[in-house]
Specification:
By secondary structure, this protein is an alpha/beta fold. 47% of the residues lie in helices and 14% in strands. The chain has helices spanning 11-20, 37-46, 60-66, 78-86, 102-110, 120-136, 146-154, 180-184, 188-191, 201-209, 211-224, 261-270, 284-287, 302-312, 316-332, 340-353, 365-386; strands spanning 2-6, 27-33, 51-54, 73-76, 91-94, 114-117, 141-143, 163-170, 231-235, 241-247, 252-256. Helix 11 runs parallel beside helix 14. The termini are far apart. Bound molecules: NADPH dihydro-nicotinamide-adenine-dinucleotide phosphate.
Length: 387
């Protein structure tokens, strides 16, 4: 099997690398990264990749030097990233963070590859388009987000017509018990410490605001074709149950596992088979208890905003994601507070409501990118006023 990894140097990319390096039956086509050139070169040498690509043209020289004499091809820049996605491969991991992951995923589908989709922004911003692209090329998308992999696994052998609802779980993040006053003072250092999962900085902060769960609600709708009212989120601080599927006979099928992304990645890599994976086995007696609570919409407005976005449909997902990315950048830069992130997203969506493009159906990647750009500009103006 020929495999490529987009976002190889990130958290998902490293977990994917860990699984790939244990296999001797795979050919690595392309590995891509951003600024972590030393690690990209190390991975490319270890997997004897045909090609290593950095998204940044100014990093080309460093990557070329780091791979001198290795036989690995080197390229840089956005066009090179897209060309890498067009290289024939059977299985492509989409693990670039943010809307930047969208186009490479499309190109991988267009050449018929199975797309292991970690980049949740792809479905949030362009879900109907992505699913259509997969169908057009008889390509498959396999979910890698742990909740969606869990739902996918719980649905094996089931009829979608019998599905009543899907429940995805949220750890609640590091601030689950914090008051609103405390949240207003939350720092970057506190927000980037997840209680259960070891993930990239951006998704970790998104978990603290529950924006990560908000994106996942939208992702669930797009991937499984459910109505918003059929999708629920529940806070489950232990992160052992990742999702549950409720059927019309009242049965709930839960998917459980240690919080380790190598499970969902490995499931997508080995699908439709199950292969041995180097993940911890659960000791239920030692765990003792699993608890659940309703998310608090007042302290964490992200889920409410996601529901509004799901009702709006069209380009609202693209605007929501772009505004969220701007809000996150502003928080990381220390320009706005923790609670300001949700306020900024809400203001951006409100401002864009008068623009008819927000709710018009998603027809092309260009219109998604245009909405992404517009929302970033509007969010930028609001952010400047808030800072
Ligand atoms: P990281 O920030 O750890 O890694 C992101 C990767 O993308 C890195 O390889 C980075 O390169 C690269 N990258 C960053 N910006 C760009 C860009 N503009 N163009 C091209 N490449 C870029 O992210 P995660 O691994 O945590 O997350 C990746 C995706 O998977 C996200 O969409 C996230 O929501 C999703 N996801 C992550 C989970 C997790 O456990 N981490 C769980 C479920 C979903 P470099 O570092 O070299 O600069």
């Amino acid at each position: 099997m020929r495999v490529s990894v987009f976002g190889a140097t990130g958290s998902i990319g490293e977990s994917t690398f860990d699984l790939l390096r244990r296999r001797d039956d795979l050919t690595t086509v392309a590995l891509t990264g951003g600024r972590n050139i030393a690690r990209l070169a190390e991975q490319a040498r270890a997997l004897r990749a045909e090609l290593a690509v950095t998204a940044h043209e100014d990093c080309y020289g460093d990557l070329k030097d780091a791979l001198a004499g290795s036989g690995v091809g080197v390229a840089a820049g956005t066009d090179a990233l897209i060309a890498a996605a067009e290289r024939p491969a059977d299985w492509v991991m989409s693990a670039i963070v943010g809307a930047a992951g969208l186009t490479p995923g499309f190109r991988a589908l267009a050449q018929g590859a199975t797309l292991a989709l970690a980049n949740k922004e792809s479905l949030v911003t362009a879900g109907p388009l992505l699913m259509r692209e997969a169908a057009r090329h008889s390509a498959r998308i396999l979910p890698v987000d742990s909740e969606h992999s869990a739902v996918f696994q719980a649905l094996v052998g089931e009829d979608m017509a019998a599905v009543e609802r899907v429940i995805i779980t949220a750890s609640g993040g590091p601030f689950r018990d914090w008051t609103k006053d405390q949240l207003a003072q939350a720092t970057l250092a506190q927000a980037q410490k997840h209680p259960n999962w070891d993930m990239g900085q951006r998704i970790t902060i998104d978990s603290a605001t529950l924006f990560n769960k908000a994106l996942e609600l939208i992702e669930t709708r797009e991937y499984f074709g459910l109505e918003p009212a059929q999708i629920e989120a529940v806070v489950h601080p232990q992160s052992i149950i990742h999702a549950l599927v409720g059927f019309r006979d009242g049965a709930l099928m839960a998917h459980m596992g240690a919080p380790d992304m190598r499970h969902a990645i490995g499931y997508a890599l080995n699908w439709p088979d199950r292969a041995e994976l180097p993940v911890a086995r659960l000791d239920l007696a030692q765990l003792g208890q699993l608890t659940f609570e309703a998310p608090d919409p007042d302290r964490f407005p992200a889920l409410r905003l996601a529901r509004e976005v799901m009702e709006m449909r069209g380009h609202a997902g693209a605007a929501f994601n772009a505004a969220k990315e701007v809000a996150l950048d502003q928080f990381i830069a220390g320009r706005i507070g923790f609670l300001d992130m949700a306020a900024l997203v809400e203001r951006t969506i409100d401002s864009l409501l008068s623009d008819s493009g927000l709710t018009s159906p998603v027809e092309s990647l260009e219109s998604v990118m245009a909405m992404d750009q517009m929302a970033r500009e509007v969010a930028g103006h609001h952010a400047a006023a808030m800072a």
